[in-house]
Design brief:
The complex is a heterodimer of chains A (200) and B (203).
Chain A lengths: L2 H46 L5 E8 L2 E7 L5 E11 L4 E8 L5 E9 L23 E2 L5 E3 L12 E3 L5 H23 L12
Parallel strand pairs in A: 7-8
Antiparallel strand pairs in A: 1-2, 2-3, 3-4, 4-5, 5-6
Chain B lengths: L5 H6 L15 H7 L3 H25 L8 H23 L1 H7 L10 H11 L4 H31 L1 E2 L2 E2 L14 H25 L1
Antiparallel strand pairs in B: 1-2
Helix pairs in contact in B: 3-4, 3-6, 3-7, 4-5, 4-6, 6-7, 7-8
């Protein structure tokens, strides 16, 4: 056999065997990987909207997904908004929950971030950052308090910035404010409709 | 080379030819993922899996592969095992997979793995190649463990997530940032060369 045909045969064989193995592995793991992703979102929704029993995806576009959540009686509990914004290093993916009138933010959680460890990465820390987002008035755009003050001294729609990580704090704030505005305009335009009594 | 005793084929990966401290190979994952011990362990396990299985396959099929296409064939073999490791982590250990991000797929271009195939598995028997791969894997794992332990303890006051230094300790954040990786590696390399010189002299 000539050298060139041996080269072709060997490379083809290696490629075919490898491709076959990989598609098997892909098929075996795909369902689990997808389930992991869904479970992560499910858990985040329960975190950001207290008392949420069921949720329905009602709107989706790139980096912006809206879920309605209902309690065990089937009443609308509020919205869970999955969104992403530009942080200091990379995208910050987060989720927050609001009441049905979009007047109040229940909670905020960070799903993915690559901010500076020890500084910007504190946006995932409950004590340093996330607790200030609990039960905030969001009928007006939220504002950042800098330097941070005690929790009691914060205004109804003020949240503390992280010392040394203003960019990361601002990134979260801007992402949330932009998402709130977008959600309101989508409801106003009738793109998102909520059927209040459609609870199963 | 084939005359070396088998035990030496194994131990050379730990000290004399340690892939990190002596050969200075695979620096990208070494520096990038050693900010926490758990990441170091996951990276070591994934790399060891790929190295051991690639060595096994390459040593078994070395006679079939024309030398002109050997690198291409090795890379396909390595990439297949890397993809398997990547999918496995994503399916069963999603948080670790998230932490390691792009560094698992990047094992494909880790020079330790291709280096061992080219320098060893393609010239030695299957058994000898496996012993070499196990030794190199263990050497890599030990190096990553030492690096990540130093960085996590000094940078966060924890080891494998457990608090080991008291609240008096102010974490040196720089240690879990990229410069901490270079500092730690440089100092360790210096120490290892010192020890080695001492050993040589006492011989």
């Amino acid at each position: 056999m000539s050298l060139s045909s041996r080269m072709v045969i060997v490379l083809t064989a290696v490629g075919i065997i490898s491709g076959g193995l990989l598609s098997t592995v892909g098929i075996l793991t795909r369902a689990r990987i997808e389930a992991n992703r869904l479970r992560e979102i499910e858990e985040a929704i329960i975190t950001v909207v207290p008392g949420a029993k069921t949720n329905t995806k009602i709107y989706e576009e790139k980096d912006f997904t809206v879920y309605t959540t209902r309690n065990d009686q089937g009443q609308i509990q509020g919205f869970a908004i999955y969104t992403a914004g530009t942080g200091f290093q990379d995208k910050i993916v987060l989720m927050f929950g609001t009441d049905a009138e979009i007047n109040k933010i229940f909670r905020l959680t960070i799903l993915d971030q690559k901010e500076t460890p020890g500084l910007g990465a504190k946006i995932t820390d409950k004590e340093a950052f996330l607790k200030y987002w609990e039960n905030k008035d969001c009928s007006h755009p939220l504002m950042l308090k800098k330097p941070p003050v005690a929790q009691e001294e914060l205004g109804a729609s003020e949240v503390n910035a992280i010392t040394g990580a203003t960019i990361s704090s601002e990134a979260v704030l801007a992402t949330v404010n932009a998402s709130l505005a977008k959600l309101r305009s989508l409801i106003q335009a009738g793109t998102i409709q909520i059927e209040e009594n459609n609870g199963q | 080379m084939a005359s070396k005793p088998l035990s030496q084929e194994f131990t050379k990966g730990l000290w004399g030819e340690n892939p990190i401290f002596r050969q200075l190979l695979g620096m990208c994952p070494t520096l990038a993922v050693t900010n926490a011990v758990i990441n170091g362990i996951a990276m070591s396990l994934a790399t060891s899996f790929v190295l051991i299985f690639s060595s096994l396959v390459v040593a078994s099929i070395k006679k079939l592969i024309p030398s002109q296409v050997r690198i291409a064939s090795y890379i396909v073999v390595i990439a297949s095992f890397v993809t398997m490791a990547d999918r496995f982590l994503a399916a069963f250990f999603p948080p670790i997979s998230k932490n390691l991000g792009p560094y698992i797929p990047l094992i494909v271009v880790n020079c330790i793995i291709l280096g061992r195939q080219e320098a060893f598995s393609s010239k030695n028997s299957v058994g000898r190649s496996l012993i070499d791969a196990f030794g190199m894997s263990l050497g890599f794992t030990l190096a990553l463990l030492v690096l990540s332990s130093i960085r996590e303890i000094l940078g966060a006051g924890t080891w494998l997530g457990h608090q080991v230094l008291g609240s008096w300790f102010e974490p040196w954040i720089i240690m879990i940032l990229p410069p901490g990786a270079f500092l730690t590696l440089g100092i360790l390399l210096g120490i290892i060369i010192l020890i080695d010189q001492k050993l040589q002299r006492s011989k």
